[in-house]
Design brief:
This protein has about 240 residues and is an alpha/beta fold. Helix content is about 15%, strand content about 35%. Strand 5 and strand 6 form a beta hairpin.
């Protein structure tokens, strides 16, 4: 079954730092957008050059204008869908669109998909992500219960890219500033953690080869369960 396609318009634009832009979308098509899908992905469809509205179809011709992004937040009363876009660090059809976006601009949305974190009530949590995964990481952390324990490692290119995230008090959150994306600093930090007792729910996302290396390491640790693990390469170096 193909995901529902919706036409939205930009409600507001906010720069969260030098490399992340928050865009809030609105529109009648969002009135039936499901609740509780923060951290899930949606397909974002931008208009073709010279056009103002995107083609809301799933076919070979529209895939070129489509990318996956994360549901950062959804306001069920206002029907506002928030998506954070990485900008100013690479060029791409959606990043370029986001950099120029202003209120009233049209954007297509497909989905949402499923929430990726496997167990919000797990014994403890290990949540690891580079800058490409920051929206999913942040949304996942904010969905955890207040009693959640564990570690969160979030990598950003500069100190200015750090954001406010609502964090449970027993969760150890660490910002890792690493402008050299060829260096797997996240793996180094994960290897230095004191592994907790019990079975962790694990979320790892970022550059594909680095995510694979981190996943290979955590597989060797006590309590690891494949069913409680989400590991995904969001991009390739």
């Amino acid at each position: 079954m193909k995901p529902r396609l919706r036409l939205t318009q930009v409600h507001s634009v906010q720069d969260l730092g030098p490399h992340m832009r928050r865009i809030v979308l609105e529109g009648d098509d969002l009135k039936d957008f499901p609740v509780g899908y923060e951290s899930a992905h949606v397909k974002v469809i931008v208009p073709k050059p010279g056009e103002t509205k995107p083609k809301l179809k799933f076919n070979f011709g529209t895939k070129k204008w489509m990318r996956s992004y994360t549901v950062r937040a959804f306001d069920v009363e206002q029907h506002w869908l928030t998506i954070d876009f990485s900008v100013n660090n690479h060029s791409g059809i959606v990043a370029d669109w986001a950099l120029q976006a202003s209120p009233g601009d049209y954007l297509g949305i497909g989905g949402p998909g499923s929430v990726k974190h496997t167990d919000f009530e797990a014994d403890w949590h290990l949540i690891v992500g580079d800058f490409s995964a920051l929206p999913a990481l942040a949304a996942t952390v904010e969905k955890l219960p207040v009693s959640a324990e564990g570690y969160v490692l979030a990598q950003v290119p500069t100190v200015q890219d750090q954001q406010h995230i609502d964090i449970p008090s027993n969760l150890h959150f660490q910002w890792i500033v690493n402008p050299d994306v060829s260096r797997n600093e996240l793996l180094k930090q994960v290897q230095g953690l004191d592994w907790m007792d019990g079975q962790p729910a694990i979320f790892i996302a970022g550059e594909a080869s680095q995510t694979k290396a981190i996943h290979s390491y955590v597989k060797t640790q006590p309590g690891y369960q494949e069913a409680k693990t989400y590991a995904s390469g969001y991009w390739k170096a």
